[in-house]
Structure formats: structure tokens, C-alpha cells
Design brief:
The complex is a heterodimer. By secondary structure, chain A is mainly beta. Chain A contains 3 helices and 28 strands. Chain A has one domain: YVTN repeat-like/Quinoprotein amine dehydrogenase (Methylamine Dehydrogenase, Chain H, 7 Propeller). Chain A has a 4-stranded antiparallel β-sheet with strand order 1-28-27-26, with no helix packed on it. Chain A starts with a strand and ends with a helix. In chain B, strands 6-7-5-10 form a 4-stranded antiparallel β-sheet. The longest helix of chain B is centred in the middle third of the chain and has 11 residues. Chain B is of the alpha+beta class. Among the domains of chain B are: 30 residues; 31 residues, no CATH class; 37 residues, no CATH class; 76 residues, 2-Layer Sandwich (Alpha-Beta Plaits), CATH 3.30.70. Chain B is 24% helix and 18% strand. The chains are: A mainly beta, B alpha+beta. At the A-B interface, β1, β5 and β25 of A face α2, β4 and α3 of B. β1 of chain A pairs antiparallel with β4 of chain B, so a sheet runs across the interface.
Amino acid sequence: MRPILLSGHERSLTQIKFNKDGDLIFSTSKDKVVCAWWSANGERLGTYSGHQGAVWTVDVSPNTVLLATGSADNTVRLWNIKTGECVKTWDFPTAVKRVAFSPDGSKLLAVTEKRMGFLGTIAVLDIAYGDGELNNLNVQAEEPSLRITCEDSKATVAGWSYMGKYIIAGHEDGSVSQYDPKTGDQLENVQAHEFDHQINDLQFSPDRTYFITASKDKSAKLISASNLAILKTYVADTPLNSASITAKKDYVILGGGQAAMDVTTTSARQGKFEARFYHKVFEDEIGRVRGHFGPLNTIDVHPAGTAYASGGEDGYVRIHHFDKPYFDFMYEVEREQLRK
Amino acid sequence: MSRLGNNADWADDDEYDDPSALPATQITENKDGTKTVVSYRFNDDNKKVKVTRRIKATVVREHVNPQVAERRSWAKFGLEKGHAPGPSFDTTSVGENMVFRPSTNWKAQAADAEKNPEQGSMKDQLKDKKVKCRICSGEHFTARCPFKDTMAPVEEPTGGADMGADEVGAAGGLGAGSSSYVPPHMRGKAGGAAGEKMGGRFEKDDLATLRVTNVSELAEEQELRDLFERFGRVTRVFLARDRETQRAKGFAFISYADRGDAARACEKMDGFGYRHLILRVEFAKRTT
């Protein structure tokens, strides 16, 4: 396995996203630029510039036409993926920490920060795709169609469950909640992680019926989207920044490391800057991939499960295309099952 | 006379080479489908370097949906605008090759690979210890190994030679000191036939080994195994391959657990048509 190193960013990575076909990767970092890359060979397709602050988050529409980014300059921007033009800017009172398209691409949620007297909110924006020929992409709704205000604890991450039925949000206090995207009511709230340990990432399974959360409390949990039942727990020895569920094989990939501010006091060995692979069902750690010189901030898996990309505090993106031993690995019980 | 001072001799004229010029790149096609490219360049010390590369080109065809194919033709934009197609060196590089092998006891393996295991308590070190067979490295005891009758343990190529020496010493076959050297032909008298036959039972393997010739270049070990397994348990399949091209060389060895199976396979598979060629199967001759 030879990783491809992408060094297009000058500061630490904040989020990486594959598109639905897996041929493109989008990466955002604290330097104001968003990059698009070909996943197969690591060639840079282009950059999207216009943000005035650190870019916290990125998501790509299911048809790979529009790209949404949220930034510390208090805006959400919508880009034409093909040309790199900014087609729409929405202003918010505070920084935007997470954006996510609904499964059908018709809605976009944006998680805003709690700051300067404003409470944290989840705003839902309606997205239009012009005439289908990439024209009139700039015709978008001006105002969010829905605002959910998080009064107890601000949301840090959020996403859409299967068929856009619920909005699932992870909170600063370690709880996970479920909202109705039509009315904005909170349907359920579960203290999934230890109290006051922020949830740093939330990623869905391919069919979006369950999701994985990564938290500062050194664990990741697999949670059902319909009733927020905790299905599995993966325990690590370091605070986690990101977690992802792999397609094709039943693994999960966790990434983390000592928080950035403590890094200088620890050596690379102790820092535990590795991507950890766990078996999704048996909850065992089955391997690690090292390479980054800082904590892993973000991980995303190719939708077909053939590769994964990780972005670190060191400013690098590493794309790993899996090779044969990865696909061959099976537990003894799995092998027996296959023989029958 | 003044000509000679500054100009090169007329006789040298033809062979006079501009030292800054580089010979042209030569490309030769090899028999096995590879290409040899000889090119010249200057290195950092301004010395001429000849670079010989052997290249094997493999065309990988992949089918993608039309949208993906359409995206391949997109022009670059933003900071990459106007750049040539292909990855550029300032943003994209290839990292060192790494081995990623998922395993239930990866911790022990990682420690082995690094030769620098983190010093923990003995209990921690033994926690992930798994039973490992000395013959096939499977997760069972050596005595339970399905290959124990046919294969020698990896670490001990000659069966029980040291054990034989011990027994003789205890029996006091000769000399005063128990640690004195006992030549092999003397060992037999005391310890039975322990040291007599090298490898002993493991040689039985040879008797049930078939040599298969006229195998197609495109053959796979797994296919051969599938073909021959229907006659009995196959313990080993060896398909000779070309080192560079990885194509089969045209012969293979198949070892059976049982000689009777081997004989039946030899009879049935000789003349079998496999991948447009007719197999020739015979018992492998013992190498002496």
C-alpha cells in the first residue's frame, strides 16, 4: 500500500469528503482554500477561493454539481464544482462548523457556533440545481427554511439519516440528539458519550440507518439512527477527532491523537498519530496505519470501500488505496460461515 | 600553424562531441513484453548519468459510469488553472510503501516488526499470545496440524538430529565426557535409526508428487489446485513463474497427501485439456 501525499494546504486539515462516485476528493483546511483532487492519482483538479477565514467544513451534493463549505468568516458558500465559481453566499451571525447535504441533495444543513450572545443553531437551506445544464445555479433561497436552536448544549456536528427522515446532531456535552427536519422538534436526546466530552465527528453508514460518533472521551460509538440505541463501542487510548464506517468490509476507521495544543510536549511515538482500524462487529482493533506527524483531524472512506483518505494537523492529506490483505482478512468464524 | 592552436584537428572533427549534448534515448522491446529504456541526464554534480529502466506496461481498463467519464475531461481551475494534465510535483507525491495487514493480534506483530517492543509487564506481553503451529503457522497446536505427516517444521529441517545426539550421550556409547562429539554413523547403534535417515518421514512427500507439464502461460495456482483437488487432498501446488512477467513457465508440481490419490490423478489428468493445451502428468522424479 503506497499512500499518495497531497500537500496543497498550508495549515491543518479540517475536513475531507469523497464525492458519491469516489473519483473526487474535497479537502478544507484552516488556510482559506478548498481543494479538489482526483482520488485515483492525487492530481489536483482545482481550488475554490473566496473565503476570508478558516474553512471548517465541506460537503458535496450527491450529483457532484454543487459543493458547500462553511467557514469561520460566518458564511456558507455554494460552489460550482466544475468551474470553481462561487454561486451563492449565505451570511450567518457566527462561524459555521458543519454543513451536510440531505441524501437527495435538496436540502443543506449548517451548524453554527455559539458565540457573542448567539446560541448554536442548525439551519436548513433549500438547494436548487438550476436547469440541469449547470445554468442558474445562483438561483437559491435567501433565507433558511428552518432554524433549530440548541438551547442546552451547542451542536458540533450534524447529518441526515436515511431518506432525510431525521437530522442527527452531536453536541458539545457528549450527547446525541434526533430532530424532525420538518418541524425542528427534538425527538430524542441520548447521552452517548461521557458528559462534557465533545463529539468531534459523526458519519453515516452507506445506507444511513446507523452512524458512528467520535468523541474526546477516547471512544467511538455506533448508534442506530431510528432510536439512537448504542450498538457498538470502540475504545481507543487517545482523544478521537474522526471516525468513518467502511463499505465492502465490516471495519471502522478511527483517527485522533493528542490535542494540537499538547503536541509539542509529546513525542511522535506517544502522540499516537495513527489511523486505527477496528472490526465493526467484534469491536477489536485489527491494525493501525501510521504516517501523519500530527493528530488526524479527519477521515473519509471511498464510497466503494476501496480507499480512504486522512487529513492531519500536519497539513497533509494521505490517500490510501487498500490492497489485497485488507480485503482478505477474515475472522475464523467469518471464514467458517463462508464455507457453509 | 595558427590553426592548430585553437581549432580541433580535422581528423577529430567527426568524433568531436559537444560535452553538453546528451545521447538520444534508446528504447528496445524485449521478448517478454517489457521495454528497456536507456536515457541520459546530468546529475547534481553536472556529471552525465546513464539511466537504464526496464518498464512493463499494464493497461488497466475500468468501466465507470458516464458522469465519471465526463468529469475526467474537466479543465483545471483556481490555483491549478492552465497547468498541464497529470499530478504536479509540488502538490502530489507518493509516500513510502507500507504493509497494512489486518490481524487480530496486530500488536504483537507490530512489536516484532519494529524490534523495539514497548516494555510492559510480562502479563501484558503474553496477553495477546496465540498458539502457532510450527509447520504451517496456523492457529493450532503443531500436533494437530493437518500437514504434520507431509511437511517438515519450518525451524527444523532435519528431523530430530539433536535429539539423537542427546540420547547417545546418555547411553554412554563412547568416551568419557558426555559432551564429546559422536559421529553420525556411531549414533545409530545406541539411539536406533534416529540419525540414520535425514528428514525421515518427510521424504514420503516426494512419492506423491506429480509433475505437470505443458501448462498454459495463463494458468493460476488456484485453478490447478481446483483441478487436482478432486482426486484427493492436495498438500502443495507449485507453479513455476517467470520472475519478471509473472507468467507461468509451463510446468507445475502437485503434491498429494496420499500416493493412491496421486496415481489416480496421474492416470486421469494425463492428456486433460486445460486452457487450450493438453496437460502431461507424470510422477516427479526424485532429485538426487
